[in-house]
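Table S2 (continued). Query chain:
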Amino acid sequence: MNGTRLRMGRLFLPLLLFPSAALANSCDVIRPNWQPGAPATHLQEAMHLFTTLPAMILLMASLLAVLKRSQWGGLLMVVLWTAYVSIIAFVDDPFVDVQTLAAGCVGSPALFIGAVAAICIAMILYTLPRETRL
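Corresponding output:
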């Protein structure tokens, strides 16, 4: 019985990639102001992710850690940024991601992840003790 389900699942899995009523509904839920036919770019997706509440809080806390030159604060911010990026990259519903990426209402988070990595590297280098700073 499981073999039959597995074969049926493999047959219908590619159908999930094509636009459908569920696809339109997922775009309406995830990005209510999205206009069909206008695909989201990397920059638009990065701006959307940077303007979420957790990202704004992390940006403010990172700025505070840099201004105070706190090594422990910088480390804490790197850990929290890593957790947030991991949630964005790994925890979301994979079927909704595939559907919304296919429709174009959600872009790739690659630019956001790269920018967060650059922020974390800069924070680590800036908060190094003066005698070991590059």
